[in-house]
Each structure stands twice: as structure tokens, then as C-alpha cells.
Design a protein that fits this description.
The complex is a heterodimer of chains A (about 525) and B (about 325). With about 525 residues, chain A is an alpha/beta fold. Helices cover about 35% and strands about 25% of the residues of chain A. Chain A is built from 18 helices and 20 strands. A 6-stranded mixed beta sheet of chain A has the order 6-7-8-3-9-10, with helices on both faces. A 6-stranded mixed beta sheet of chain A has the order 16-17-18-13-19-20, sandwiched between helices. Chain A is globular. By secondary structure, chain B is mostly helical. In chain B, strands 1-4 form a two-stranded antiparallel ribbon. Chain B is globular, with a radius of gyration of 21 Å. The two termini of chain B are about 25 Å apart. Classes of the chains: A alpha/beta (about 525), B mainly alpha (about 325). Chains A and B meet through helix 11, helix 12, helix 13, helix 14 and helix 15 of A and helix 8 and helix 9 of B.
Chain lengths: ~525, ~325
């Protein structure tokens, strides 16, 4: 940890307070043996905007959740106004004046703005009129043009955010955490939002600002902290930082060189064009997305969360449905396709390997063999009414060996496996269906470092066998390590395409962010 | 690497005994054995062969219904119309018999009605995507109303001279009441279906993680229809046993607490409402526990209010135990990440 980088002088707007309102010392959070954050020391002064930047999974959210009391730190200490605190639940943090404004708004949609502002602080008896007048006064004092009697469901994103902020002020929040506040705002709304943040700062509120948009952070923040792999890389005044410096701190890692070494890049001559996506649109998430995938190549898809990269994969696979009218065309070897259920995609040889194996990747009560066998049974070719123990072990033995799944754990239920082995089982469960197009979504998320090369080797092997492979990842070193061609998604579109040889992390990140 | 012989059986290895974390079946089995020993030593007339056979006979209808409910709860569904299917389809069939329809035909009508209701339930749940709880609750009311329309009587009596119809409920084989055999055979068939066929595996997969099952390419919708049809089939068989036992079919049972007794035996035995857990053995163990309690209460002459209170407490205890054995919170959910 670079101690010299942490400046003792707060670059606060009001500048009088020398005592930090919030201090985290050596904070660490461990999930199942893996450090989500480790040794993070963080401080925040009144009237300061402190931006947190880092890649997906760098630990920004974990740190903020701990500060907001949604999770508890495994070790480390937290001080508010110099007093040691240990929040057991968000309520405790709230009463200490810490309020988190979430990315997905946490308002109750059917209640009015006024009711939402007062939520959790209702008196036994409240008149609607009193409530509305109170809310009106609060909203006016903040310069928000929101009608307190409107149900929140009818408000736009920007106004919902205003209600959330008003609620934070109503709760006398002295520390407000914004998680990606500008992600769903229009440019004009962003300008307004920045005014608001400056206004809050002038009132002496301390603000933690999480954002992917680096320019925004540089513009609005007094100080910026960069996290990488759960560790704090640097904390410095925004004035002393540049975009390049931030990017360098976000991605430059030593581990990356060892694990994500560029695989021997042999030139693949392009073969058959197997999958074409033309102008596919789904609601506001995927807009006119177009790209093609060829047999025998690995296409990397980079992009931030919310860029539509997972959604397009699920649309191809039939797990999500694109717009019925003007939804665009997807062609499989020239033939237009539109699947109602994933089963049809699987029958046509498409596999989608989920980004969230816990939520929808494997069957947790079953052992490794059963998970693999069910994958095979679910296909038209592999179905048989009676279970065959011999076929089950044959399939499982093959995939356990090919993917180097820890054989000692074969009789354990899959929840008891390590993240890496779980991921390999999910892979095996899909690959046993003998697909010709394989879409990996975050193939190494939550996977131990030792297992990552196995998975990358398998991706390469599949492409060498002539299959078309798509790898979606928010982890740039991974994209660079496995891809022959790199697509960058942003706000529902493919905005850039690079050849693996010419791509760099900077170029990709730049395209993905702005 | 080739581990051939010591592979776990096709079903999940739920008979693995560990002292640190016993399964719910094992806990309930131990409690049941303890109760049988205690009652046998303290209650007059409990530990006789005839009473024990009577005990088993008394739970067989509940058990057959429980097999259907167990199967559908394993798939993370529920069917609250099971008792209504049994009573409704057979009431109509018995009325037709009274009107002179041949017994075989009437039985087929009951079967046809039951399966139709099962298909309708399944289609509503799978294709219309209405919650199973409400679909089947509503189906129960509709069946009740329809059956009353066709057969306006609380009790419909079976024809006097129909030994074939009565055999499953009233007969004895080798001195053992036939309902026990019916329950045993049904349990065996459902057990083999769940543990030895791919459809059975799919039912567990669906209950374990429906979204993962869908993404794996399992055809969930036809599967859900099939599950509701199996429930209806078992309700039909249970109705046959019921008629043999009582000589009649009572529509009143659809308005009573019987359906909750069915859910009770399923949940007690360790078929978690979370889905994907437990099996036929759970239903059998749950039935034997409830049968033992009710039998002992009858001998002790405990009134039915107290019996209901105790049943309620046992159900709550089972659900608490289930929560304790399968805790769900952020920390456990992220194990292995």
C-alpha cells in the first residue's frame, strides 16, 4: 500500500473540518476464503466529494455496503466522528447519518414521493396533508421539482433519484453514498445532478461517489480513491490526477502478467460465418446491436455492466426475448432464428454459460456427476427415460478429466465445491450438450487464480476444434488474453471492434467508457 | 481418475449419515421410533399387531395423497386441489353408478375427470404462469361446486354389491389390509420414478433451481403439466381406497383440514418447500409419525381440538427445522465464491 499517496490534507469545499467524519482502518471482507476487500483504509471529511473508482469486482460496492451497514466487515475498524462503530444492519448506519443511494432505486413504487421520503419514520398517525406539506417544503428547499403526491412509479429516473436524495436529507444524512448515480441519466440531468452534489457539499455533507465514468469523477470529486482486486491502490486529490493515471492505476496489475499472459497467437483464417446479429433491439437495454461470429475464433465482448452484453447473449440463447416489432434479425448459418425457450437454442447447438452460476448455473443439491448428466439428458440426442449409471460415469469421467475438476470432490454436493470447481462443472454441464457456438459470460468470475488458466485453455481448445466461441468479460486482461477479435459494447450497441493484435486495455476502456 | 465402483447412487446421497448434520428424515425417523417405544411401553393396546396394522391402514390414504403432494413440492410447486380431485371425481362416479352405469365405466369417468383437472391445473401453472398456490386453491372450489351440481349430496354411497370396487379399501391379503399394499406399491413406483428415470431427475432439477433447469434445456412446461397429472392420478387411487374403507365418498372433506394434513406429512418428512430436497422416504416417515401420534391420541382419548393444536405445533416445528437445516442468507449464499 502506497502510504505516501494518501494525503493528510482534505481538499474539502468548506475546508474547516480537520477531523474525518468517517474512517475505515484496515477493512477486510472475506467471502468463502476469498478477500472481496483487504486492508482498505479509507477516510472521508465533511463537505468532501470522494470518488471511488475501479473495475467491476474491484471491491467498491463491498466497501460501500460495509459503510452503509448492509454487510459486516470480517476484520478492520470503522469510526464515525472518531467513535468506533460496528453496524449490524442498515438501520444502524442510517441512525449514524450514513445513507446509500442505490443504483437500482430502493423506493417503493406504489407509494407517493412524500410517503417514500418518510418511509421508515412514520408516526403512528399521519395526515396525508401534513405529510405532503412537509415533503413539499423539503423538496423545495432542495430545488427539486417533484410533486410529493405523485406515486413514485410514475416518476422518471432523474426524479426518482431526487426523491432518494430528499429521503437521505430527511434522514439527516451526513454521509451520502452514490452508487453509479449518473448511469441512467440524460446529459442535462447529469448537469443538474452535479449542481445538486455541489450544493450538498456546500451544506457540509460528505459524499462517496462511485462511478465508472472517469471524466465525471475527475470533474466532481475532491479526492479520488482507486481500488483494484479489493486493495486500495491510491488516494489522491482529483486535481493531481488525470484520466490516464486513473486507468493505469485501475488496470496495471502484477498478477495479470502471470495469469493472463497472451496465449500463443496464431493467425486463424476465418471460416464459416455461423452467427449474425443484425440490429437486434430489446427495450432500452439493447439497441440496434450488430455483429458476426465465425467458426474457429474467439470473440471477446468487453463493456461495462448495463452495456447490454449479457442481454444480447441471452437473447441469442432464447432466455430473453427481443422486441417483436423491429427487434432485428439473428441468423444461424444464414437461417433466421427466434427462440422462445433455451431448449430450442440448445437443440441448434448453442450454449450459454451463465455469469451467475449460483443463481442459474448448477443444481446445488446434486453431485458433480448428476449435474453433468442432466446437461446431457436435457438434449434431444442424450435423452433416455431410464437413468444409466454407466453412461453417467462415462460422461462425468470424461469431463472431470478434460476440465481437471478436483476428483476428490465428486461425491460432494456442488455447493460445497470451490468457486473454480463449480465453474468447471457449469462448463461441463453445457459442453456435454455438444454445442457448436459457445457463449461464455464472465467465465472466470469468482474463480481462484489457479483455475483461470484451465478455463482459458478450454476456451482456446474449443475454438481450435472449430467451434465459434464468444467470451463476455468485464475483465480486460481476460479479454485480451483469450480473444482473436474484440468487440466493445456500450449502452446497448457495439461501438468498437479491435483485432487482438492492435487492442490494448486503454483503447478498450476508452471505447467502453465514452 | 476413473472412479467406477464407489460412485454414489443415482439419487442424491441423502442417506449419508453424519452426526454433525443429520437430515430431517433421520431426525423424524428417530423421533418416531422413540415415540413408538414410549407409547408401546406406556399405552395399553398400542403395541399389539392388530393396532399397528390399523395404524398403518389409517395412514395409507394420507400417504398416497402425500406421495403426489411430495412429488410436486419437490419440484417447488404445490397442489391444494388434490383432496378435491379425489372427492369430486369419485362423487360424480358414484352418482353415475347409482344411476345404473356399469362400475368399470364409472371408474373410468372418475379417472378421466381427475386427469382433466390435473391437465387444466398444469396448463394454468405452466403456460398461463399463474401461481400454483392460487390456481389449485381456486380449482378446489370449482371442483367442489361442480361436483355438488352433479351430485347434490354430502355423502354419496357406493353400490352395495361391488366387491371389486371395495377390494382396495376393505380387502385383506394374508391378514394384512390391502390399503397398506396399495400405499407400498404406489410408494415404490413413485420412488423408482423419482430416482431412476430422467423425468424424476428433471423434477429434482426444477425444484433445485428452475432457472438453471430452463437454461439447461429442460422442457419445464410439459414437465409441470405432467406433475399435476401425476398428483391427480394418485388422488384417483386414494379415492378408490377411500371408497373401499368407508363405503362412500364425502364431499365434506374438501372443506376440511385434510389437504393440510397432506402438506403436513410431506413437510415433516423433510421435503423442503424450498424444493429439490427429500424423497418418497420422507413421505413415509412423515406419515408414520402422524399416524403414531393420532393413534396414540385415540387410545388416550384426547379430543380433536387438542389433536389439531398438536398437529399445528408439529408442522411449525418441521418448518423451523427445515429453515435451520437449509438456512438462506447472504453469507451462505456466497459460499464458494
Amino acid at each position: 500500500m502506497n502510504d505516501t499517496a494518501i494525503l493528510s490534507e482534505p481538499a474539502a469545499g468548506t475546508g474547516q473540518a480537520r477531523e474525518p467524519v468517517l474512517k475505515v482502518v484496515n477493512g477486510a471482507k472475506v467471502y468463502g476464503g476469498v478477500h472481496a476487500i483487504e486492508g482498505v483504509s479509507f477516510d472521508l471529511y465533511p463537505g468532501e466529494v470522494h470518488a471511488l473508482v475501479g473495475e467491476n469486482g474491484a471491491g467498491k460496492s463491498t466497501l460501500c455496503k460495509a459503510i452503509a451497514g448492509a454487510i459486516r466487515l470480517t476484520s478492520g475498524e470503522m469510526f464515525v466522528d472518531g467513535k468506533r462503530v460496528d453496524f449490524e444492519q442498515p438501520r444502524d448506519a442510517l441512525s449514524a447519518g450514513i445513507c446509500m443511494v442505490y443504483q437500482e432505486t430502493s423506493l417503493v413504487p406504489t407509494m407517493t414521493a412524500a410517503q417514500n421520503i418518510e418511509l421508515g419514520n412514520e408516526k403512528l398517525l399521519t395526515r396525508f396533508r401534513t405529510l405532503n406539506i412537509q415533503a413539499q417544503q423539503l423538496l423545495q428547499s432542495l430545488n427539486f421539482h417533484v410533486d410529493p403526491a405523485t406515486p413514485v412509479a410514475l416518476l422518471g429516473t432523474a426524479k426518482k433519484q431526487m426523491v432518494e436524495i430528499a429521503r437521505a436529507i430527511y434522514n439527516k444524512a451526513r454521509i451520502i453514498i452514490f452508487d453509479e448515480p449518473t448511469a441512467s441519466l440524460t446529459p442535462e440531468e447529469i448537469v443538474h445532478f452535479f449542481h445538486l452534489v455541489r450544493d450538498l457539499r456546500a451544506r457540509g455533507v460528505a459524499i462517496i461517489y462511485i462511478s465508472h465514468a472517469l471524466e465525471e469523477s475527475l470533474q466532481i470529486a475532491d479526492r479520488i480513491t482507486v481500488l483494484r482486486d479489493g486493495r486500495l491502490v491510491i488516494t489522491a486529490p482529483a486535481k493531481t490526477l488525470t484520466r490516464d493515471a486513473l486507468v493505469q492505476n485501475m488496470v496495471g496489475r502484477q498478477v495479470a502478467q502471470a495469469v493472463y499472459g497472451r496465449s500463443a497467437s496464431k493467425t486463424h483464417e476465418r471460416r464459416e460465418k455461423v452467427l449474425t446479429v443484425e440490429n437486434v433491439t430489446m427495450g432500452m437495454v439493447v439497441k440496434n446491436m450488430s455483429f458476426s461470429v465465425y467458426a474457429g475464433e474467439v470473440v471477446g465482448v468487453a463493456g461495462l455492466i448495463g452495456s447490454g452484453r449479457t442481454e444480447i447473449a441471452k437473447i441469442i440463447f432464447g432466455a430473453l426475448k427481443r422486441n417483436l416489432v423491429n427487434g432485428g434479425t439473428i441468423r444461424l448459418r444464414g437461417k433466421p432464428i427466434r427462440y422462445r425457450v433455451p431448449r430450442q437454442a440448445i437443440d441448434d447447438g448453442i450454449a450459454y454459460i451463465t455469469e451467475d452460476r449460483k443463481a442459474n448455473g448448477f443444481f446445488e443439491t446434486m453431485i458433480v456427476d448428476d449435474n453433468v448428466y442432466i446437461g446431457s439428458l436435457a438434449t434431444r440426442a442424450g435423452f433416455s427415460f431410464l437413468l444409466s449409471r454407466a453412461r453417467r460415469s462415462k460422461l462425468a469421467n470424461y469431463w472431470v478429466e478434460r476440465l481437471k475438476i478436483n476428483a476428490l470432490q465428486r461425491k460432494a454436493r456442488i455447493v460445497e465445491l470451490s468457486g473454480g470447481n463449480q465453474q468447471k462443472v457449469v462448463l461441463a454441464k453445457s459442453l456435454v450438450q455438444e454445442p457448436t457456438i459457445i457463449i461464455f459470460d464472465e467465465p472466470t468470475r469468482g474463480v481462484d487464480v489457479g483455475t483461470i488458466p484451465h478455463i482459458h485453455a478450454e476456451i482456446r481448445r474449443l475454438a481450435d476444434e472449430g467451434k465459434a466461441v464468444v467470451v463476455i468479460s468485464s475483465y480486460l486482461p481476460e479479454i485480451l488474453a483469450v480473444s482473436d477479435r474484440i468487440l466493445v459494447a456500450r449502452t446497448g450497441r457495439i461501438v468498437a471492434e479491435f483485432d487482438a493484435a492492435e487492442a490494448t486495455q486503454d483503447k478498450i476502456l476508452y471505447a467502453a467508457v465514452h | 481418475m476413473a472412479v467406477e465402483s464407489p460412485l454414489a447412487p443415482a439419487s442424491t446421497p441423502r442417506f449419508r449419515f453424519s452426526l454433525t448434520k443429520p437430515t430431517q428424515e433421520q431426525i423424524v425417523l428417530l423421533i418416531t421410533i422413540a415415540l413408538v417405544i414410549v407409547f408401546g411401553l406406556t399405552l395399553n393396546g398400542f403395541a399389539t399387531l392388530s393396532n399397528l396394522l390399523n395404524l398403518l391402514r389409517s395412514i395409507s390414504i394420507l400417504g398416497i395423497l402425500g406421495l403426489g403432494m411430495g412429488l410436486i413440492v419437490i419440484s417447488r410447486g404445490i397442489d391444494l386441489s388434490e383432496v378435491a380431485i379425489m372427492a369430486g371425481s369419485w362423487s360424480i362416479a358414484l352418482i353415475e353408478m347409482q344411476h345404473g352405469m356399469p362400475i368399470g365405466w364409472a371408474c373410468m369417468i372418475a379417472l378421466g375427470l381427475a386427469v382433466t383437472i390435473g391437465v387444466v391445473n398444469g396448463v394454468m401453472v405452466a403456460f398461463v404462469e399463474a401461481p400454483a398456490l392460487f390456481v389449485t386453491l381456486a380449482a378446489g372450489f370449482v371442483i367442489y361446486g361442480l361436483a355438488f351440481w352433479f351430485a347434490p349430496a354430502w355423502v354419496v354411497y357406493a353400490p352395495k354389491d361391488a366387491p371389486a370396487l371395495m377390494f382396495l379399501g376393505a380387502g385383506r391379503l394374508f391378514g394384512v389390509p390391502v390399503p397398506i399394499f396399495v400405499f407400498a406399491v404406489a410408494a415404490l413406483i413413485i420412488h423408482l420414478f423419482l430416482s431412476r428415470t430422467s423425468i424424476g431427475r428433471f423434477i429434482y432439477a426444477q425444484g433445485d433451481n428452475p432457472e438453471a433447469a430452463r437454461l439447461s434445456g429442460i422442457a419445464l412446461r410439459p414437465l409441470m403439466v405432467l406433475e399435476h397429472v401425476i398428483v391427480a392420478l394418485l388422488a384417483w387411487i386414494a379415492g378408490l381406497v377411500w371408497i373401499g374403507t368407508t363405503g362412500s365418498m364425502q364431499m365434506a372433506i374438501t372443506q376440511g383440514t385434510m389437504i393440510f394434513d397432506v402438506v403436513l406429512v410431506v413437510v415433516i418428512g423433510g421435503i423442503s418447500l424450498v424444493g429439490g430436497r427429500g424423497g418418497v422416504f420422507s413421505v413415509v416417515v412423515g406419515c408414520v409419525l402422524i399416524g403414531t401420534l393420532l393413534n396414540a391420541f385415540t387410545i388416550m382419548d384426547v379430543n380433536s381440538e387438542v389433536q389439531n393444536i398438536i398437529k399445528g405445533i408439529v408442522l411449525l416445528a418441521a418448518i423451523v427445522l427445515d429453515n435451520f437445516l437449509h438456512p438462506r442468507d447472504e453469507e451462505t449464499a456466497r459460499q464458494g465464491d
